[in-house]
Predict the structure.
Amino acid sequence: MVEISKVLKTPHVTEKATLLAKGNQYVFKVWSKANKVEIKKAIKDLYGVDVLSVKIIKVPAKRRRLGRISGWRKGYKKAIVKIKEGQKIEIMPR
């Protein structure tokens, strides 16, 4: 059994993610060690939907600067999950 809290962090809500949701694709931030099989099981257990495919994107850390002070913005891993036609995931409660 996959622990959902060790796979999924949060839904990734952006303008692009909202457009993807119209095509039955949802975006989630996931832990860096998570793989496609674990993500698929976690989505199925949490939301009760049939997952067709999972695509994983690693967003690299970027150098940030504020005046003389420089640092790094953290990188993260996100997953685009495609679900079966006619099913829906409620990301934002109404």
The chain has two helices and six strands. The two ends are 30 Å apart (CA to CA). The domain at 4-83 is CATH 3.30.70.330 (Alpha-Beta Plaits).
